[in-house]
Design a protein that fits this description.
Layout lengths: L2 H19 L13 E4 L13 H12 L9 E3 L11 E6 L7 H12 L3 E6 L4 H11 L6 E2 L29 E7 L2 E8 L3 H5 L2 H4 L3 H19 L2
Parallel strand pairs: 1-2, 1-3, 3-4, 4-7
Antiparallel strand pairs: 5-6, 6-7
Helix pairs in contact: 2-7, 3-4
Length: 227
């Protein structure tokens, strides 16, 4: 059986396993699970890249067997609704700040099996790292090796994250934080996957950059839902 076929079978099983764990949460249109954009405090633009998640959800729906919504949700870290989303996403250019209730809720979210994908849109790195260390003080971010399964869960990325936009030069980095041996946070840095996911005309990205971002985004969703 090929890697791709194995992945599809795992995704089919996931629909029955992941949804009950998160309260059978489906989208407003009833079409399946969705991704929730995290509305964090601190003044950073948590709402950045408005076309990114809709495009990613379209790609997941069209390329995999996962039943997903075509629209993302949004949720604050102190809301009870947080626990109904198996995947949350955060991005932005500015400051991230978590109140004590946010920290407690996010910790419980990870303990229940939730997954966070954070994508630095250039500017949130220092504050994100500082706040995440309050949620997972025993698990500092570590760079994931290129053979980690998140780089091959659906598409193959033998050299790790694709480079979408140039920030400070140098290669992109994929960091992870673990809880009880499980990857619960994936942090893409110095690549700007979210910009690449946006409608192509927003940043005038060439088709190959947009496609690379879509493929990596699909990998992240597939990995999150199968672990």
């Amino acid at each position: 059986m090929t890697r791709w076929m194995t992945g599809v079978l795992a995704l089919v099983v996931t629909i029955a396993v992941v949804l009950p764990a998160f309260g059978d949460r489906v989208s407003e249109d009833g079409r399946g699970v969705t991704i929730a954009q995290l509305k964090y405090r601190g003044g950073g633009d948590w709402y950045a890249n408005p076309t990114a998640l809709p495009n990613l959800l379209d790609a997941v729906a069209e390329r995999t067997e996962v039943a997903v919504a075509r629209r993302p949700a949004s949720v604050a870290p102190d809301q009870e609704e947080l626990f109904t989303y198996p995947i949350i996403h955060m991005t932005g250019h500015g400051r991230v700040q978590l109140a004590p209730e946010d920290i407690a809720n996010l910790r419980e979210y990870f303990e229940r099996g939730g997954f966070l994908w954070a994508d630095d849109n250039y500017g949130m790195d220092a504050s994100f790292r500082a706040e995440l260390s309050k949620v997972l003080p025993e698990s500092p971010l570590v760079e994931l090796p290129f053979d980690h399964e998140i780089y091959s869960s659906f598409y193959e990325f033998r050299d790790g994250l694709p480079k979408i936009h140039e920030h400070d030069g140098g290669p992109p980095h994929g960091y992870g934080a673990f809880l009880n041996g499980e990857l619960v946070v994936f942090y893409s840095f110095n690549t700007d996957i979210g910009d690449g996911l946006e409608d192509a005309e927003v940043h005038d990205d060439p088709p190959e950059k947009h496609e690379a971002a879509l493929r990596m985004g699909v990998n992240i969703v597939v990995y999150a839902l199968t672990h």
